Structures are given as structure tokens and as C-alpha cells.
Request: fold
Amino acid sequence: MTVSTKPPQPRAAGQAVMPDTTVKGGPARTTVQSGRSAPRRVTPRRTVGAPLYTALPGVRDLLPRDAAWWHAADTAIAAVAELHQCLHIDPPPLEPIEVYEAAFATEEVPYVIRTKSMRLVPQLDPRVAVLRSVLEHHVSGAASPLKLWYASSHIGQSTSDGLPLSATRVRGLEFIGDADPLYDGEAIAAAADIFRSLKVPDLRLVINTIGCRVCRTSYQQRLGAYYRGVRAKLCRNCVGRLDTAPLALLGCVGESCRELREHAPILLDYLCQNCNNHFRSVLEFVEENGILYEPNPYLIGPASYHTRTVFMFVSDLAAHTVGPPDRTVARAGTPSPAMSSRRKDPEPVRDGLPLAAGGRYDYLGEALRMRQIPAVGVTIYLEPLITLLRAENIITPSSARPAVFFVAIGDQARKSSLRLMQLLRAGGIPVAESVGKKSLLAQLRVAEKLKSTIALLYGQREAFEGTVIMRDLKTSAQETILITNLVSEIKKRFKS
Ligand SMILES: [Zn+2]
Ligand SMILES: [Zn+2]
Reply:
């Protein structure tokens, strides 16, 4: 299998790149392509002392040191999802290209995996995969709308620093089957609850409406006419999309484009009565729930399937802690901060890093199944959230349950040590060990590093007698315990 991405991209000297994963003699040749560029192998560049392979820039490894915070975030998200009675769903990592072609309408699907017989797309937008899944399997809940939540990772295209792609982890809540603005309010309130339970400070809700098919079409015509009048002052990128996606010009960060935007017509002035009423109701629900919001007429959805409400939760503290937002981050309703595959400019939201974004997508069901299914959802961006929680020490994750440290000395004891440790684990007791080390001292040093409080010493004599020595590692007090009583004795010890 040859994996290649849109090359060539500038990279720092000595920076390792994605490994060539060619498997010789594989059953089928599969190529992952970015856009229309030709597949290309990437040869790693060696630098003395540097690791040969590193993660792609824009793709973050979540490491054990992050685990406490990411589990805290996941726990908070799952708890809120349960409070809203959301059902759990798991979108698959691949979809047939037709799904995304339908969802993105006229926009090009940026990544395609070509096999001999199929064209597949890696996870680009879990919301699309979730809705496809719901429609295919006629998923329904006892109540309407259908409420779902999921965890996903997916690939995105980033324009910042010339990176070819990025990947990010998200958690999403989707309310499918009802156009009532109450559910826009509920999606916003759910995200606010998650951040509140994680004690995320300095959070702002930025919100806008992008209207419906009817009012947006006439607005786009007005907007297009305005921008055509000032075409000469637009950046090259904006000139290129002026005729196909005039709304996207509102998100351009180019200096002259931002100045021009000041005089551009805004959609709020062109909303139809229905959209106007809908937006007003959403804002009322938001206000009633005590959530402060900041209207931003330039906030737009990332994809053609978005309609009416779009919003983002932005943390000013995160911008300070995590650094400036990725150039593709600030786009309301994007499935991921770094993934906007179709529009590549950030939303003109003042400083702050998006921790969540969402919006209504009443047309997506129609694109996938020729049936209008109103829906609204919110996406939580896990990586910036974890970084913020960790860097600011906003929450103190509960420490893991203490583990006993199992020490086995001698071949006889080592032989039955796994059976004994499994006995403890079956009794619900976490067990750490380093029985690969021969000496008692070496094993106890590991126990000390792990800050274990109880060690179980198991040698040849104990194996013969069916006992274990329990040593308190703080006081060095020891007692001999029958293996048959081991689990209950340790549980007693942890309770006291
Ligand atoms: Zn409308
Ligand atoms: Zn521009």
C-alpha cells in the first residue's frame, strides 16, 4: 500500500515526514490521494539524534501524560450526553465517495482512497457519516428528535504552514428530526454544560444565522454583486471563489478583504420571516439559559449543508494557553478545527480558540436521502480542550485507584505469578509488576517509582505454602496472608 499526501509541502529542516508504508506483494494497490495531485512516495530524511519518524505536523499524539485530562473531558461529555438522553453511535472511518459527494454538493472531496473497484473517503466529517448511518439503518429513538453522541477522529486539510493535512479528535452531539429552535438552544446548552462541568473559564458563545435556501440565495446574489464591484481589490483566492461561493469571502483574513467586508451587505438584513423568527427564538433560548452570546454576522457554516443557526464556543484563555488558532480553526460548524476542507480561511472571530462549533443542517438529509430531515449538532474539539485543561490546571483529575505491586522471586514463583495477579485483577484490584527483573531490590525500586503503597512478595517458600507476604511500603511492616484470603485482605487494607 502506498500512502501519499498532497506534495510537495515545505517543512522544517530535519523534520521527519510520514513514513512510506509500501507493502510489497500486497493483494491490491491502494493509493490515498489528496485532491487531484499525483500519488508520491515520501522518503524520510535522517537527522542524527532525531527520531526517524514523527507524527505529521498538525496531527497530535495523545500521550499517557494527557490521559487524565482527556478522560475527564470524555467523562464530562458522556455525562452530559446521558443527561440529554443521547444514544451512543460510532461513525465508521471510511465512507464510499458518493456519500461525501452528495453531502458536499459542488465541492470537491479532498481525499480519496482508490482501490481496484472502489473510491473510498477517510473520515472527513463524522456528522455526515452519522446521518448516513441513521438513514441507512432507520435508527430512531423512543422520543423525537433522535439524540445521538459519538467520539471520532478524522482527517482534515489545513492551509496553515502549508501542511498537507491534519487530523483531530472530536466528540459530537446531534439532534436529528426536528426544526424547532429549542433544539438549537439545547445543543448550545449541552456544550455549555460540558464546559461548565470542566470549569473552562473565559468562554464566549459566538452565534449567527446563515438563513435558509430562499433568503440566502437572494443575499448571495447581493453579496456577489457587491464583491464584483470591488473585484480589483480582492485577494487572488477570493477572486477565484467569487462566483461559486461569495459567502466564503466574508471569512477571508486578507487585509484588504477584511476592509471590504466592512461595507458588504449582511445576511441579517435579508433574512426571510421564518429564519428571522427562528433565530430570534434561538437567542431567547440561549438567554433564558443564562448563556452570554456574541452575535457575529460574518460567522458562516463550513459546508453547503448548513442552514440557519451556526455557532462557536471560543475560549480566550485557550488562545493564550494553546497559542493562536489554526488558520482553519475559526469556522463555525466545521467538523474539526483544522479540517475545513472546503473553505480555508478562518472566521473573523476576534482572538480566541474555538473549543466547540455547531449548527443546524436541515439540508443534509435531503442530500443523502432526498428527504428533508431537520437537524442540529455541536462538535467539541478535544485537543485544544485537553491542552487548556492541562496547561491551566483547571481541573484536578481524580487519581487512579492505587495498585498493589507484585514481586516474584525465583523461577517457581515467577511461573505461577501471572495466575496470582489475574486472581487479584479478577477481584477488582489493579496490579503493577516488574517480574521480568530478577532481584527483589530491582523490583522494589520500580514499586517505589510507581508510588505503590503495598507490595506482595512471592518467593519459592510462599509458592510452596500457598501464601504471599504483604509489605506496607511506607512502614515496611509485613504479614503473611493465605492466597485464599488475598483479595479480601487487600480490599480491607485499601478501605482503611
Ligand atoms: Zn430564510
Ligand atoms: Zn480575500
Summary: The first helix runs from residue 64 to 83.
